[in-house]
Amino acid sequence: MKVYRIKKNAEFRIVYKRGRSFSNNLLVLYTYRNKKGVNRLGISISKRVGKSVERNRIKRLIKEICRLNIENIKTGYDLVFIARNLSNGKSYAEIDNSIKNLIKKAGLYNK
Q1: Does residue 110 belong to any structural domain of this protein?
Q2: What single string gives the DSSP state of each residue in 4-41?
Q3: Of the candidates 77, 90, 78, 72, the residue with the CA atom closest to the CA atom of residue 25
Q4: Contacts for 4 with CB less than 8 Å, ≥ 6 apart
Q5: pTM higher than 0.85, yes or no?
Q6: 2 Cβ partners below 8 Å, 6+ apart?
């Protein structure tokens, strides 16, 4: 299944305003039920997290982890991940555990 992206600022603001938030030490997850029947992914990383190389690496890791786990996530939700400063320099496994933990907290994990 394809991972659809949230790109417009207005879409991010709707998720922030109307959605629910869940957090751990590496990431914050905002979820909002959409009426599209597909999951959409948005990623927000502040410049405080690090230089562009580090920020892009974190974005790539989050996108890849979501792509591999899309079948295990309930459909019909907008998911926005916000990276915290501590996520800089973390391994794939640590970010993977963090994302799975947040999805389970939100009650969106199928397995």
Answers
A1: no
A2: EE---HHHHHHHHHHSEEEE-SSEEEEEEE-SSSS-EE
A3: 90
A4: 38, 39, 40, 41
A5: yes
A6: 38
Per the structure, the complete domain to which residue 56 belongs is given by 4-105
Does any domain span residue 111? no
Tell me: the pLDDT tens digits for 14-68? Answer: 999 999 999 999 999 999 999 888 999 999 999 999 999 999 999 999 999 999 9
- The domain that holds 45 is classified in CATH as 3.30.230.10
Angle between helices 52-69 and 92-105 (to 10 degrees): 60
| CA–CA gap between residue 10 and residue 15 (Å, rounded) | 9
**Residue 91 lies inside a defined structural domain of this protein:** yes
Using the structure block, give the residue that is written with the tokens 């994990």.
109
Looking up tokens 């890791």 gives 61
Q: CA nearest 81: which of 96, 99, 106?
A: 99
